[in-house]
Amino acid sequence: MPTQSRSIRVNGRSWRIEVEPEEPLLWVLRDHLKLTGTKFGCGEGVCGSCSVLINGEAYRSCMVTVGEVADSDEIVTIEGLGQPGNLSPLQQAFIDHTAFGCGYCTPGMIVTADAFLRKNPYPTRDEIVEAMDDNLCRCASYPSIVEAIEGVAGTGETRED
Questions:
Q1: Contact (CB, 8 A) for 114 and 159
Q2: What one-character-per-residue DSSP string does 114-160 give?
Q3: Is the pTM value of this prediction over 0.85?
Q4: Which of 5, 21, 104, 114 has the smallest count of CB within 10 Å of its CB?
Q5: How high is the pLDDT of residue 161?
Q6: 40: closest CA among 140, 79, 68, 30?
Q7: Residue 85 — very low, low, confident or very high, per pLDDT cuts 50/70/90?
Q8: DSSP state of 91
Q9: pLDDT digits (tens, 9 = 90+) for 15-25
C-alpha cells in the first residue's frame, strides 16, 4: 500500500508523517516519532504494554492503525502524562510504591490506570483490580500496582492537562 501524508496529534503536538494507513499506531509512535515509552509486548492486543490514550480512552496501539486515527484525535503516550522532572501523580505513585519489576509493562499500566481513574476517580480495590485485569505483568507486581493506583484514587490527580 502506498504511503500517505498524515497529520496526527500526539502529546499536545501536531506531527506530519508519511506512512501507510495500515501501519499500527505503535510503530508510528516508536519508529516515526521516536516515542519509545510505548512498548511492544504481544502484538495481539492481549498484554497492554502498548496502551496509549486516544481522546482519553485507553487503546492497544498495536491494534489501532494510523489510518483509524483522525487528525483531530488527541493521542497521549506515557511521555505525555508528565514532564521531565515533573512526573504526573500517577507516575510518581508507581515509583513511591515500587509498582514495577522490570518496568516493561509499566507505561501501559500507568496509561490504563490514568484512563480508568478519569472515569472512576473513587474506585474500590476490587474495581481497580478489575480495571487492570487485562494488563499483564510478567514480574507479578500486581499488589504494588494496585497500591499505587489506590494512592492516587480519590485525589482527583492523574496527569497535568
A1: yes
A2: HHHHHH-SS--HHHHHHHHTTS--TT--HHHHHHHHHHHTTTT-S--
A3: yes
A4: 5
A5: 46
A6: 30
A7: confident
A8: H
A9: 999 999 999 99
